[in-house]
Amino acid sequence: MDKNQKTIELLNTKEITEELCRREGVEEIVIDAHAKFRIEVVGKAPRDFEGPARLLIITD
Q: Is residue 33 predicted with pLDDT exceeding 80?
């Protein structure tokens, strides 16, 4: 590894998220501050949230 590259352990969550968003097979949904949203998955209880949030759908 190049000495200027950070290892994953040294990256903060924002840096990891930004890198993932640039990858193929990743879709990002941005939820504005105070916007309410619900995630429902078949066979699981729905969960309610409030933004701000960034949802990453990784299909890779």
A: yes
